[in-house]
């Protein structure tokens, strides 16, 4: 989103108080929760943690040696036990835990008792394969119940999962498996997407066999995806390495005691893009993560016993971890999971799902909302959406037009919207309205969740009471990342060095900069004190709510034999928020054809996955660089978005930029 659009956002004066009827029944309707949390944040978080089941209570709530935090020290618990076993004593035993619909229309449902049995069998099977506490398991699956089951089975036996989004390429999968030294891979023959089959097992085979493969992988568990009783098929099983899930898991015992885990034991690793070409393995541990995932799910979504909660995120992203699996199941909720695309078989699919399952809470992304807007409200009018009572948004800033459309057409004007800001690294929601308390403004994530200390700071750490600056988190929070797998230096440098050596804050509210977290986002604060998160200020793109590093795409581009040099920037895009715009210099003597562009673009998809496919590729004889040789991405962005050029005086060759801009405009 450009600065100009952003300034007009701040003039947004439509406000929406919680509807009286909603507030009257809300779990939280008293704004005093904020002051109570502020009075003693550790006691407040300990209060939340006590709502979980601990086999041994903690001795200390927090130990904070920046940048290393440890929460609920000495406490023992198991995340899967908290999501399943703990609900089996009362009426939740027979309550629906998971409702699932495949893209072709096949349906499955699990009560808590049934899900517990499935997870226990899967956990026994993993144990029989020699997997246990301290191991890593890679999960590469479509959106089928087994994705959640596999995650919880790992958690049950104390193995950390590393879920790799099914849209990532074989090579991305291989890199992630190798970085984490995963011993086991869980995948499926295929999944459905827009009528076609995504051949995951084939990609997995490629990951495991080509270019050095994955030496740490011992076994591959393969789930057979069925439709109408017939397997999707297509999986070629490798003798001695590959095992069918249904053969191993169905035969396994449903009696599998949960491993007692330390609060700070690793629960999972999830890879996300940063400013270098190599994705970061974000580490989340057990007690603190589960506490905040649980707390935020309950309060932000005002979760009640009879809700049907639908989070549309894929389990391959953090939203799928915290708000499809751990948060809602820890709350004993009924969760809907859908496998496929929103326009399969037609553009009414989401609304049909809401009608069929009587969904009460919907959590989705601005990019989806913008697509729905484009498709038109007539698709919604064919269905009964009256069951909905609360809407959520996540992944990128939501533009006020999309917010209003969501409010009017999906929410029927009666549902509060919670625009939730957080990241893979924060593990759980950080800035958000509380639907029974907060007056919302379209486009603003409003205020920090109770107990979270967010701020907007200048480059030197001064508190900015109103206006723009760097988003900062000034106090440790339970679900914070504990590190980057295998790279403590990068952890420190990426998140904790922005204000190192500075004094952060103002007046009598200051602190050393060492303990202040930098999320990589720019933000502004309005007169109400509300936060408006503008977007990344680093070389990270947000394409359709997915994080992609410019360097990752650049490495994929220069990996093509025809490419000498490449630069990638994010370009404002009507639906996706940002799109990948690539500038490419070909090797000497090569013909800059349209066909070669397609080839280069396909190469990026092969290297990373379809989410990284460049929207535009522009050939250029040279890239604009500073005299010290750094590519001037800001200028390229100006060109890609058709703006007048900024200052080019520090450029090695200003004519390069003028030429590029002309070329870009000629392309349209
Ligand atoms: C980045 C994190 C949070 C789970 C999904 C994405 C952007 C996320 C919002 C929001 C403005 C947002 C930020 C953030 N972002 N939610 N409500 N308003 N920006 O997780 O892939 O780790 O990406 O997404 O730029 O840093 P992620």
UniProtKB/TrEMBL annotation:
Molecular function in Gene Ontology: acetate-CoA ligase activity; AMP binding; ATP binding; metal ion binding
Top enzyme class: ligase
EC number: 6.2.1.1
In-chain residues carrying the UniProt-annotated modification N6-acetyllysine: 630
Cofactor(s) it depends on: Mg(2+)
GO terms under cellular component: cytosol
Keyword DNA repair listed: no
Reaction catalyzed: acetate + ATP + CoA = acetyl-CoA + AMP + diphosphate
Domain Acetyl-coenzyme A synthetase N-terminal: 32-83
Post-translational modification note: Acetylated. Deacetylation by the SIR2-homolog deacetylase activates the enzyme.
Binding site for CoA: 193-196, 319
Key words, A-Z: Acetylation, ATP-binding, Ligase, Magnesium, Metal-binding, Nucleotide-binding
Span of domain AMP-binding enzyme C-terminal: 552-630
Positions of Mg(2+) binding: 558, 560, 563
Residues of the AMP-dependent synthetase/ligase domain: 94-485
GO annotation, biological process: acetyl-CoA biosynthetic process from acetate
Binding site residues for ATP: 395-397, 419-424, 521, 536, 547
Family label: Belongs to the ATP-dependent AMP-binding enzyme family.
Function: Catalyzes the conversion of acetate into acetyl-CoA (AcCoA), an essential intermediate at the junction of anabolic and catabolic pathways. AcsA undergoes a two-step reaction. In the first half reaction, AcsA combines acetate with ATP to form acetyl-adenylate (AcAMP) intermediate. In the second half reaction, it can then transfer the acetyl group from AcAMP to the sulfhydryl group of CoA, forming the product AcCoA.
Entry protein name: Acetyl-coenzyme A synthetase
Top-level taxonomy: Bacteria, Pseudomonadati, Gemmatimonadota, Longimicrobiia, Longimicrobiales
């Amino acid at each position: 989103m450009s600065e100009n659009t952003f300034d007009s956002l701040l003039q947004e004066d439509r406000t929406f108080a919680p509807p009286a009827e909603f507030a009257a029944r809300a779990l939280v309707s008293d704004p005093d929760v904020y002051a109570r949390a502020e009075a003693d944040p550790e006691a407040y978080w300990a209060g939340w943690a006590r709502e979980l089941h601990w086999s041994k209570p903690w001795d200390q709530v927090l130990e904070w040696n920046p940048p290393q935090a440890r929460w609920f020290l000495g406490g023992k618990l198991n995340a899967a036990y908290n999501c399943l076993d703990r609900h089996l004593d009362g009426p939740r035993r027979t309550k629906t835990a998971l409702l699932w619909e495949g893209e072709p229309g096949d349906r499955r449902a699990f009560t808590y008792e049934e899900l517990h049995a499935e997870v226990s069998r899967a956990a026994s099977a993993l144990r029989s394969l020699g997997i246990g506490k301290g191991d890593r398991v890679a999960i590469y699956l479509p959106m089928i119940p087994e994705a959640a089951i596999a995650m919880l089975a790992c958690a049950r036996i104390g193995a950390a999962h590393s879920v790799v989004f099914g849209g990532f390429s074989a090579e991305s999968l291989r890199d992630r498996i190798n970085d984490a030294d995963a011993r086991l891979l869980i995948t499926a023959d295929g999944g459905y997407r827009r009528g076609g089959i995504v051949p995951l097992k084939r990609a997995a085979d490629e990951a495991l066999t080509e270019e050095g493969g994955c030496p740490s992988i011992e076994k591959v568990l393969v789930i057979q995806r069925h439709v109408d009783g017939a397997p999707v098929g297509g999986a070629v099983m490798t003798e001695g390495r590959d095992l069918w899930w249904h053969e191993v898991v169905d035969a396994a015992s449903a009696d599998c005691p949960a491993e007692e885990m330390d609060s700070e034991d690793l629960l999972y690793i999830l890879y996300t893009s940063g400013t270098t070409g190599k994705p970061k393995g974000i580490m989340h541990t057990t007690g603190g993560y589960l506490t905040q995932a649980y707390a935020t799910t309950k309060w932000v979504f005002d979760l009640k016993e009879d809700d049907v909660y639908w989070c549309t995120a894929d389990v391959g992203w953090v939203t799928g971890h915290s708000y499809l699996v751990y948060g809602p199941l820890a709350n004993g909720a009924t969760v809907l999971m859908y496998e496929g695309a929103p326009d399969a078989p037609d553009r009414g699919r989401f609304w049909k799902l809401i009608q069929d399952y009587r969904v009460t809470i919907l959590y989705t992304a601005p990019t989806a909302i913008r697509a729905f807007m484009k498709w038109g409200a007539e698709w919604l009018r064919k269905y009964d959406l009256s069951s909905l009572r609360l809407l959520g948004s996540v992944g990128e800033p939501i533009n006020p037009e999309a917010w209003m459309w969501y409010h009017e057409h999906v929410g029927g004007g009666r549902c509060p919207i919670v625009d939730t800001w957080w990241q893979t690294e924060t593990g759980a929601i950080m800035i958000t309205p509380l639907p029974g308390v907060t007056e919302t403004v379209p486009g603003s994530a409003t205020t920090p969740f109770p107990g979270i200390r967010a701020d907007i700071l200048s480059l030197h750490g001064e508190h900015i009471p109103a206006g723009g600056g760097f988003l900062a988190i000034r106090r440790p929070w339970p679900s914070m990342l504990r590190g980057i797998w295998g790279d403590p230096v990068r952890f420190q440098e990426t998140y904790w060095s922005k204000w190192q050596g500075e004094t952060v804050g103002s007046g009598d509210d200051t602190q050393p900069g060492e303990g202040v977290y930098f999320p990589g986002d720019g933000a502004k604060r309005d007169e109400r004190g509300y936060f408006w998160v503008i977007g990344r200020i680093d070389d990270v793109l947000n394409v359709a709510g997915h994080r992609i590093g410019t360097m990752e795409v650049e490495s994929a581009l220069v990996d093509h034999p025809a490419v000498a040099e490449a630069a990638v920037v994010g370009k404002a895009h009507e639906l996706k928020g940002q799109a990948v715009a690539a500038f490419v210099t070909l090797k000497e003597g090569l013909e800059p054809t349209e066909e070669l562009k397609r080839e280069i673009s396909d190469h990026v998809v092969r290297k990373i996955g379809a989410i990284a496919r460049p929207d535009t590729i522009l050939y250029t004889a040279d890239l604009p660089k500073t005299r010290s040789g750094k590519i001037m991405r800001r200028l390229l962005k100006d060109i890609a978005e058709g703006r007048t050029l900024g200052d080019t005086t520090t450029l090695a060759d200003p004519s390069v930029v003028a030429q590029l801009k002309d070329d870009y405009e000629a392309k349209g």
